Amino acid sequence: MVDLFSQYQRIKPEVDAAIQQVIDRSAFIKGDEVLRLEAQLSSYCKCRQVISCANGTDALQIALMALELNPEDEIIIPAFTYVATAEVIALLGLTPVMVDVDPFTFNCSVSELEKAITPKTKAIIPVHLFGQAAPMEAIMQLANKYNLWVIEDNAQALGAEVIFQDGIIHKAGTIGHLGCTSFFPTKNLGCFGDGGAIQTNDEALAGKIRMIANHGQKIKYQHSLIGCNSRLDTIQAAILEVKLKQLDQYIQARQKAAGFYTLRLQNCNSIQLPAQSTNTPHTFNQYTLQVNDGKRDELKKYLTEKGIPSIIYYPTPLYRQEAFSKYAPKGFSLKHTEQLCQSVLSIPMHTELTEEIQEYIVEAIIQFDNRVTK
Fold first, then answer.
1. Residues of the chain above pLDDT 90, percent
2. Residue 308: count of CB within 10 angstroms of its CB
3. CA separation, residue 282 to residues 134, 164, 212, 345 (Å)
4. pLDDT of residue 1 exceeding 80
5. Is 182 a residue whose pLDDT tops 80?
6. Is 355 a residue whose pLDDT tops 90?
């Protein structure tokens, strides 16, 4: 599904030198590289503050902690997403309210968001799923109308752009009150382990977030808030500094690979190709098909026999997970989420894909399509 080794080989001298510099100085925690990376990300994303942390899940949790919400306050999220989005809400004693998604973009449906708002609703967490940014202009209009916080789950779409109706271009993760991203190795900008960051243009929130991520302290041994211990290691920051310079090229490589898939697979009747919004260019952290007529598992098996990996993101709606059963009434079901969980299949997508590899993949899918549609 990914080729991290080949990606590393392209930048090996720079990465190795950056790691060695950290080792030579032995400043493994809060080294200069961490502060530099935060400043560079702030400049890249055009937002005032970036606060790094240990991983993307921590980023979401810390962002919610900074809002000082009350127990059982409701946070609206898409039901079709990774567990971390809901997990941190429940962990903090808040209530995740799961809504259906657009069946083509896989992202939040604004109409479904509005229908879910109650007097207990305090925030929305739109997820920029698979690298496609959610409709943030409409979501912010909704949030302003109902006085809600917006935390963008930007784990899969760092570098994505959102073009507003006035023509102004915003980076995903900088439009809401807070944006959270992950540096997990397979992300658009991935390190060599775990890592994450929070973005914001609110200086007061940024100050609070820095304290929360550092045991609630601004001055050592003076703890003003209940916090946690969530830091980005200096070595990971050094690696990310090198890779951040390549991020736009990485995204372009993904978009080129996606264009190849789309061109070659457009006539297959057994699948639906991922939709692309005209005002939110897709960064393709994943290239996710929908397989028609209940044949998803059959296609997955066929690809496996051909030596081609594929992954189902995500096989079960959040509200059907045992851990979240108390947040959904018995028999609760969302049409598009159910459909997607039964039909989606992601095929290899990364920065090192060659046309030769892609040709082998698409030929296998075309052969399957011919077999099941004739």
1. 97
2. 17
3. 10, 15, 33, 17
4. yes
5. yes
6. yes
Q: What's the CA gap between 178 and 284, in Å, rounded? A: 22
- Return the DSSP state at 129: G
Q: Can you say whether residue 136 is alpha, beta or left, with left for phi > 0 and alpha for psi between -120 and 50 degrees?
A: alpha
Taking the whole predicted model, whether its pTM rises above 0.85 is answered as yes
CATH 3.90.1150.10 placement within the chain? 247-373
Local structure of 330: helix, strand or coil: coil
Contact 192, 234 (CB under 8 A): no
pLDDT at position 277 over 90: no
Q: How far is CA 224 from the centre of its chain?
A: 31
Q: Which helix (H) or strand (E) holds 12?
A: helix 12-25
Q: What integer is the mean pLDDT of 82-92? A: 97
Distance CA 65, CA 41 (A): 23
- Residues 27 and 251 sit within 8 Å (Cβ to Cβ): no
151, 123 Cβ separation under 8 angstroms: yes
Res 46: pLDDT = 96
Q: What is the DSSP code string of 55-103? A: -HHHHHHHHHHHTTPPTT-EEEEESSS-HHHHHHHHHTT-EEEEE-B-T
Query: Is the confidence at residue 252, as pLDDT, over 80?
Result: yes
- CATH of the domain spanning 4-98+108-244: 3.40.640.10
Give the pair of three-digit tokens for residue 367: 């052969």
The domain 247-373 belongs to what CATH superfamily?
Aspartate Aminotransferase, domain 1 (3.90.1150.10)
Segments of the chain assigned to CATH 3.40.640.10: 4-98+108-244
Give dist(CA 160, CA 275) in Å, integer. 15
Q: Are strands 178-182 and 169-171 parallel, antiparallel or unpaired?
A: unpaired
Give me the mean pLDDT over the 356-366 stretch.
98
Look-up of token digits 């992300």: 187
